[in-house]
Amino acid sequence: MGLTSVSKPQGKRIYKQPSARSHSFPLRYLQLPAFILTGLGIALAFYFGVKHLPLAPQTETFLPTVTPSLSAPIVQSDPFAEAVKSATTAAQLAQVAKTSSDWQLVAQQWQTAATLMNSVPSDRVQFNLARQKAVEYEKNFQYARKNAEK
After folding, report:
1. Per residue, what are the HEC states of the chain?
2. Could you report the average pLDDT of every consecutive run of 10 residues in the chain (150 residues)?
3. Residues 6+ away with beta carbon under 8 Å from 27
4. Phi and psi (nearest 5°) for 89?
5. Could you count the other beta carbons within 10 Å of the beta carbon of residue 97?
């Protein structure tokens, strides 16, 4: 490879290196196979690497034995989840309710759902949503109560 002279309009000569692409195989033909092989290599490394990772040694964990007391049951309830469960039941019952007693049951479920939504603590992430749902469930309760009075 030598230098090629190029003349400028003012008569000065500039010397440039010839382009590397002008005499070589076009690299764009190698890009797709290289990409495919790289992806395949990563996939295989992940597959075989994850399967053959050494497991951490298992240690014995001693948990204290807890004897439940009959006088005070331990119940950790989630009022938001319970309210959603009650609202779901109410909505399902409302789809098939025909008699006054059916609608009374629907109204009871909506009232329970609204009460539970109002009991969600203010430090919970769902607090604002719970307040909105409580208003919605209260409206549904009123609707079901009117149908029960018919």
Report:
1. CCCEEEECCCCCEEEECCCHHHCCCCCHHHHHHHHHHHHHHHHHHHHHHHHCCCCCCCCCCCCCCCCCCCCCCCCCCCHHHHHHHHHHHHHHHHHHCCCHHHHHHHHHHHHHHHHHHHCCCCCCCCHHHHHHHHHHHHHHHHHHHHHHHC
2. 55 59 57 61 57 51 52 69 94 92 95 95 94 95 92
3. 21
4. -60, -45
5. 19
Only one residue has tokens 């009075």, namely 149
What is the spatial distance between Cα 81 and Cα 120, in angstroms, rounded to a whole number? 10
Structure tokens at 147: 């149908």
In contact, 150 and 100? CB cutoff 8 Å: yes
